[in-house]
Amino acid sequence: MTERPTTPLDSDLTGHILDAAGDVSGEMAAPAMPKPASKTPTVSTSLRLKVDVFAELQAAAQTRGIGHLVLAQQLIEAGLAQLREDDAMVPLADVRLLLAQLARRTTPAA
């Protein structure tokens, strides 16, 4: 690999530019780092959704003025909170069995 030849003009020009610019690093403000949304550690995950479900999620998020990932997180957290609070959660098979037993005990209406 050959190096690009430099001429005295190249090095003089570079030197003049650097001299003219000077060191301005002390004048630069430190970049403002965004504050974390939460102090609670989070994990990254991947979720596969049907195309129509994803489109609905995006539309709902846009209506609310938030990102679709933020809305998905909110919906998941709300759903889990509801599951925790709902003591009446029973399997559907148990509900059907109970309804069948009740149906056998009652006499049909005339």
Could you explain the architecture of this structure?
- It is built from 4 helices and no strands.
- It is mostly helical and 110 residues long.
- The chain has a domain of 39 residues.
- Helix 2 packs across helix 3.
- The longest helix has 18 residues.
- The N and C termini lie far apart (100 Å).
- The model has no long low-confidence stretch (mean pLDDT 80).
Silhouette: rod-shaped
- List the helices and strands in order: HHHH
Mean pLDDT: 80
The helical percent reads 40-55%
User: How much β-strand is present in the residues?
Assistant: under 5%
Q: Tell me the number of strands.
A: 0
Specify the biggest β-sheet: none
Q: What count of helical segments does DSSP give?
A: 4
Q: Measure the end-to-end span.
A: 100 Å
What Rg is obtained from the alpha carbons, in whole angstroms? 33 Å
Structural class of the helix and strand makeup? Answer: mainly alpha
Low-confidence stretches: none
